[in-house]
Amino acid sequence: MLSSTTVITSNAAPSLDYRFHVATGGAATLRVRLLPTFPLVSGQGLRLAVAVDDGAPLPLAVTTGFDTKRSDSALSAWQQRVLANATEATRKLPQPLTPGWHTLRLVAVAAGVVVDKIILDFGGLQPCYDGPAETRLP
Length: 138
Fold this sequence. Notes:
Layout: E1 15-22, E2 29-34, E3 46-52, E4 58-62, H1 77-84, E5 87-92, E6 100-108, E7 115-121
Antiparallel strand pairs: 1-6, 2-5, 2-7, 3-4, 3-6
């Protein structure tokens, strides 16, 4: 378990690797759905990094929307996240993915980030409450 004041350096950061298969390939946007938690270190946001195959880690962060005060008529961004039980960090991948097997590495940058779902969007993703269903190979 990481304490809330832990400073994570890139060479010692905890990480998780996920193998995935791409059928047709192409440009993709990575969508990482997070549970709506407050940053453990004020002002730093919910931060993580991702790397595809042996690529350099790319930063992902949710840095705004942590104000819990409601405006006159609308719910605050924080209230909307809590009601949806999710917030999302997105990143367009710098290189198109080729068909075949790949590895996605999630790298811890800040403590307290809870990943709920990982989505690779090759275009045409339809909005829905919980994202697309899991894809499984036969």
